[in-house]
Every structure is written in structure tokens, then in C-alpha cells.
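Q: What residues go here?
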């Protein structure tokens, strides 16, 4: 996702989006992507090609993943530029056909303390509903092991999980002592990915950034978990299905709707409709989104409960997400669940 915006408040141009990605989002996570996106931001010929795509399809993650799916090798920008120019027609076709659907199971490490606190307060198993579920891999927080700050490993009740999700913390994070029971799980996506499809699995791997082999291994482990018992995923607009899905959850479960890096891909009016539903429906609502796309009300302003805190967070939140429960910011998180900075 991209949180860059011009001083005038208008959406940034393609060059600015790629420059922001190269300066803010990629450094520390993928030197290769940092170099490539900074190179693109200063390359009129490549920018002209990218601008032939519809605006939502110009995202760095989407364009770069399309190139990686075709075999673009990790290396210098010069080498990538040559590959992109040579294969642009195919890259363009993939970008038009696919979406940025990064399904990072590592985000469960950031979500777990909030999920555990809800389960403890409610005294019930959880019914999970993910908006923008992709392949639904984050619907299985009970199938992984967790390790915070290199401390004791937290395993599922049945033993070690499919993968160990590591997370560094700052502040008074309420690290749980047990993984909550998940009694039911489902999700909504405009184009759900099939965990049993080799093509969809290859696309999910292409969305993993270069140099991050540990994420690729984690993805493969999460896919194996999901293939054993694929979650119910509904194809369609979240606002058309969310109410029925919430009301169909088992009565003996506490319903939790959650999402990560989804709001930037929703038009403003859809975001407002979704936020209204989250405040109206009988569910808990966990959002894990960039600071520039925090929920907004019908008047276009930040919701009152987050307004004061948001003003204090903007400088700290660059390149990170804000984790919130029912609209109240709780923590800053690494975009792949690698860090959790508790607020207050």
C-alpha cells in the first residue's frame, strides 16, 4: 500500500508513489525493491509505460510482483529495467488480470494480543471474518506458534504450529498466555484465491518481496494449513456481504471482523459504508491499516475517537500500520507483523 500524498491533498503521481515506496516502505525490508522503485521514479520511459495502466493497477507491489512472476531476477535496477522493457506486454497483462493480494500470515502475530483479549473478555471462542481475505491465510491464527522478543514460544493447544511467527515489541504489549480458540472462520474478497490452485499459490509467492525467503517459507507453511481445511470465502464486495456474514456466525462465538491493508483499495464512499457497518453490527472490529487511510466518517473527516491520537502518530507511523480496535488506535505494527509498538 502507499500512503504518499501531495501537499495539496491531491493523489500523488506515479513518480511520487514509487519514490515514496523506495524511500519509506522498502528500505530495511527489500534493498532490491528500494533500488528498483527509486530507479523507476526517475525513469520517464518506464513511468510512461506504467501510466498506461489504470490508476489502481500502477501500485509498486502489483507491477513488481507481475515482473517477478515472469522471472525478473534480483539484481540492479539496470538489469530489472531491461527485463521490464523486454517483457512489458506480459507484465501489463498480469497486472490487469491480478490484484495486490499479499496474504501475510505473519500479521497474525500483531493481531493475536487483541484477539486473545477479546476472547478472554467474552469468555467464548472467536468467529473470525476477514474483509479482503485473499486466500484466507490470516484466518488461522490458532494454527501457528508465536515468539515475542525471542522469549518463550507460544504454541497451539495441540503442539507446535505450522510455523513460528516472530515479533519484536515495544511498550506494554498484552502478550497472551494462550492462543484463543477459533470456533468459526470465513472471509470476503472481490477475487478470493484458491489455496489448492498452483497458479494462485505462485502469485502469492510473487507478492513476497525479494530477499525475504523466510516469508516465502512461512507462506508455504500457511498454504499447507489452509489446504487441510479451506476456509469459507465469499466472492464479492465486502459491503454487500458483511452484514449477512456477521449475523450467520454461531451464537456461541464472539464475532470479530478484521482486515489488514485493505482500505486503500476501497473507494472513499465504500470505506464510509464499511465503517458505519462496523459500528452498527454486533461484532468486534480490528483494523490494521496505514495512517493515511484510517476510517473516516460521512463528512470525510477522521472519526472523533481517533482524531486526537492520529495527530500524534503520523510522524511515527510512516511505513507502518496502525492497529485499532473498534476505531481506537492500540499499536503501530510492522506491515508484515514483524513488530508491535503498543501505545499508551
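A:
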Amino acid at each position: 500500500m502507499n500512503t504518499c500524498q501531495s501537499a495539496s491533498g491531491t493523489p500523488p503521481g506515479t513518480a511520487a508513489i514509487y519514490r515514496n515506496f523506495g524511500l519509506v516502505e522498502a528500505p530495511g525490508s527489500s534493498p532490491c525493491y528500494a533500488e528498483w522503485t527509486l530507479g523507476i521514479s526517475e525513469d520517464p520511459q518506464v513511468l510512461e509505460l506504467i501510466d498506461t495502466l489504470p490508476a489502481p493497477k500502477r501500485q509498486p507491489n502489483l507491477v513488481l510482483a507481475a515482473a517477478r512472476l515472469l522471472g525478473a531476477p534480483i539484481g540492479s535496477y539496470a538489469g530489472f529495467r531491461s527485463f521490464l522493457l523486454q517483457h512489458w506486454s506480459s507484465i501489463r497483462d498480469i497486472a490487469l488480470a491480478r490484484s495486490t493480494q499479499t496474504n501475510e500470515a505473519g500479521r497474525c502475530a500483531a493481531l493475536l494480543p487483541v484477539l486473545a483479549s477479546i476472547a478472554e473478555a467474552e469468555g467464548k471462542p472467536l468467529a473470525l471474518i476477514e474483509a479482503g481475505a485473499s486466500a484466507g491465510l490470516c484466518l488461522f491464527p490458532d494454527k501457528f506458534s508465536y515468539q515475542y522478543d525471542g522469549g518463550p514460544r507460544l504454541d497451539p493447544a495441540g503442539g507446535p504450529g505450522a510455523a513460528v511467527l516472530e515479533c519484536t515489541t515495544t511498550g506494554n504489549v498484552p502478550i497472551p498466555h494462550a492462543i484463543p480458540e477459533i470456533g468459526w472462520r470465513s472471509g470476503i474478497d472481490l477475487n478470493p484465491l484458491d489455496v489448492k490452485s498452483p497458479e494462485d499459490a505462485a502469485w502469492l509467492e510473487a507478492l513476497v518481496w525479494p530477499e525475504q525467503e523466510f516469508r516465502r517459507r512461512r507462506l508455504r507453511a500457511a498454504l499447507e494449513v489452509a489446504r487441510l481445511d479451506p476456509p469459507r470465502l465469499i466472492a464479492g464486495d465486502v459491503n454487500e456481504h458483511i452484514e449477512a456474514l456477521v449475523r450467520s456466525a454461531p451464537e456461541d462465538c464472539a464475532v470479530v471482523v478484521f482486515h489488514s491493508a485493505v482500505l486503500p483499495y476501497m473507494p472513499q464512499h465504500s470505506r464510509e459504508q464499511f465503517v458505519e457497518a462496523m459500528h452498527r453490527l454486533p461484532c468486534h472490529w480490528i483494523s490494521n491499516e496505514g495512517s493515511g487511510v484510517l476510517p473516516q466518517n460521512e463528512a470525510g473527516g477522521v472519526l472523533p475517537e481517533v482524531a486526537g491520537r492520529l495527530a500524534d502518530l503520523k510522524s511515527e507511523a510512516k511505513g507502518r500500520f496502525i492497529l485499532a480496535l473498534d476505531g481506537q488506535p492500540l499499536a503501530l505494527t510492522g506491515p508484515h507483523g514483524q513488530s508491535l509498538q503498543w501505545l499508551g
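A: Context that may help when evaluating the design: The longest strand covers residues 182-189. Confidence is low (pLDDT under 50) at residues 1-10, 296-303.
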